[in-house]
Amino acid sequence: MILDITDQKRVEDALRESEQRFRLVAESAPVMLWMGDQNGKCVYLNRAQREFWGVELEAIADFDWGTTVHPEDHDALYGPFGQGMQAQAPFSTEARLQRADGEYRIVSTNAQPRFSPGGEFLGMIGVNVDITENRQTERALRESEERFRAIANSIDQLIWATQPNGYHDYYNQRWYEYTGVPEGTTDGAGWSGMFHPDDQERAWSIWRHCLETGEPYHIEYRLKHRSGQYRWVLGRAQPVRDDQGRIIRWFGTCTDIHDFKQAQEELRESRERAVRTEEETRRLASMLADRVAELDAANEEIQRFAYIVSHDLRAPLVNVMGFTSELESAHAEIEQFYRKVLETNPGLVSPDTRSAVEADLVEAIGFIRSSTVKMDKLINAILKLSREGRRVLAPEHLGMGALLEAQRQSVAHQLHERGAELVIENVPDLTSDRLAVEQIFGNLIDNAVKYLDPARQGRIVVRGQDLGIGIRYEIEDNGRGIDPKDYERIFDLFRRSGVQDQQGRNRSCARARSCAKARRYDLGVVAAGRRLDLHGRAAQIHQHEFGGRVMPHQHPVTIIMIEDDEGHARLIEKNIRRAGVCNEIRTFASGTSAIEHLFSDVVRNAGPFLVLLDLNLPDMNGVDILAKLKNDEKLKRAPVVVLTTTDDQREVQRCYDLGANVYITKPVEYESFSQAIRQLGLFLSVIQVPETL
């Protein structure tokens, strides 16, 4: 039997040609293509799919693609795949497939059923697309959006966003909390209803202009608050553009500036008031400046008065002590005579005479001496306070640990005698005047040591703390304690608290507070200690060399003494004579009479002379006399010895600068005074005075 299969051959050839065309296209396709049979086994993989799985063309028949499916994605892939095979219908799914290098990639699968010309189901043909990067991008975008929302909802700003056409589609949580409106009610154009009626037209006009031009949005308007009050806010927005410069989003903020606007208004009103009262302000400022100047002048006058009073009080003391010593010497002679009379003829000595010589006179002299010593100490205290007020401060960095250690060494002997200890804890450094700080801590520590409680082991602690705006130092002791009512009293000069069994007049606490106030520190007492917030005289003889050439004495040297205090003059002369100096002494009680004498022709053309000069004279300052002498061509070679109760170092240096040869401070204590004058006498006995003036 012969069958005509021409049509069948033609169909087979057409099918074969179609398959060849398919394979040619599939091999060059950029996506992964596959075909499976009725059992789901691969019968074809294009080049992209083979490279993905690492399968050679001849190995396709034995390749099991199911081994490449991620274990967690079996259901995601096999479910849709099985349903499609059973129903002979298309299916789509996503699953992670393992690439040839071992990495799992997210693959999107889309498959269609495949049929023969006779309608027989042949299997599935599908496309696999690697969408890993897309999914990662989507996840990053989602995470970024979540972060944005978290940040936007956590800040105090009102944040909003719109589409390119200005349609509002996002507000952060703060917007709804601030306005009190339900979510979504201000989307689109609904937000304009939140503006104050007087601001709506202006706000819309500026917003439309920005949408048209792409310019940044900036405006101040009143926004309705949840309280019903309209509050001033600052609105700002910036466009976000794509790579081609096209606007894809607008992001904006609203900042509540209501308090700032009110402050601006108050400031404007304040400025207007200031302008209206400018003349009054200038007048008050002028009055204040005048008052400050008056206070400065008064303060300077007080300091000068204290200094002058100290000198004027000391001068009589020198006389009292000096003539008390002379009285003691006379008493010794009287007592010697009294003893002889008592031995030879006791009947001549009455009971009153005996009492006067043996008791009354000795007691009186003793009281005079002790009283003058106390008076001298008080004068010194006043003088010291005066000097501290005039001293120029020199701030420097102070290592407080080292400074306080030096203070501890200075009181080590007293601490040892009392069985006490001084503990220095951590103390911050300070920038201040060294001498002032040393005086403050020295006075407070001395006071603490003096008033330790003998019933227990003494302990003094110094500590400090940096408070940021200042430094606090504390000096704490376990001494006798201070009655709270005396917390301020102890800083008054010559005032003390508690049992008065220690010598002194409470000058240490007064000096400490005086130094502290001068440096704008706060010094006070608390229950546990003292807290500082950083809110005997001997002769001083300074000798300079005489300028010019000196010659041996050929004529007696006359001593010109310029001294207004008759007592001082007498005591000086007595002690000079006791030193063996017999030169003529001419005494002048005023500067005017001394100048007239020194500048007279008799003196200028006479023999050599030496000047003993007091600085504090009733009619003129001794410094002026010194200057006159040293500025005169004839008299400037005459030696000048300054002999005064003033020991201010500035005065001492000034005298030396003007040409003084010797500066001697008169001590109040008579033995020291006598020793100083005798040293002067020895000096006068060996000095060579220029022969020709």
Q: Would you identify the regions where 5 or more consecutive residues have pLDDT less than 50?
A: 527-554
Tell me the CATH architecture of the largest domain.
3-Layer(aba) Sandwich
Looking at the structure, the CATH topology of the largest domain is: Rossmann fold
Assigned CATH class of the largest domain: Alpha Beta
Which percent band covers the strand fraction?
15-25%
Main sheet: strands, sense, barrel = 6 strands, mixed
Strand order of the largest sheet: 18-23-22-21-19-20
Mean pLDDT: 77
Q: Tell how many strands the DSSP assignment holds.
A: 23
Q: What's the domain count?
A: 5
**First-last Cα distance:** 175 Å
Shape: elongated
**Radius of gyration based on Cα positions:** 55 Å
What oligomerization state is this entry in? single chain
Helix content: 40-55%
Supply the number of helical segments: 19
Give me a quick take on this structure.
By secondary structure, this protein is an alpha+beta fold. The chain folds into 5 domains: 17-130, PAS domain (Beta-Lactamase), CATH 3.30.450.20; 137-263, PAS domain (Beta-Lactamase); 281-389; 394-533, Heat Shock Protein 90, CATH 3.30.565; 541-686, Rossmann fold (3-Layer(aba) Sandwich), CATH 3.40.50.
Describe this structure in words.
This protein has 19 helices and 23 strands. The strands form 5 sheets. A 6-stranded mixed β-sheet has the order 18-23-22-21-19-20. A 5-stranded antiparallel β-sheet has the order 2-1-5-4-3, sandwiched between helices. Strands 7-6-10-9-8 form a 5-stranded antiparallel β-sheet, with helices on both faces. Helix 8 packs antiparallel against helix 9, helix 8 packs across helix 19 and helix 12 runs antiparallel to helix 13. The protein starts with 5 loop residues before the first helix and ends in a 7-residue tail after the last helix. By secondary structure, it is of the alpha+beta class. The chain folds into 5 domains: 114 residues, 2-Layer Sandwich (Beta-Lactamase), CATH 3.30.450; 127 residues, Beta-Lactamase, CATH 3.30.450; 109 residues; 140 residues, Histidine kinase-like ATPase, C-terminal domain (Heat Shock Protein 90), CATH 3.30.565.10; 146 residues, Response regulator (Rossmann fold), CATH 3.40.50.
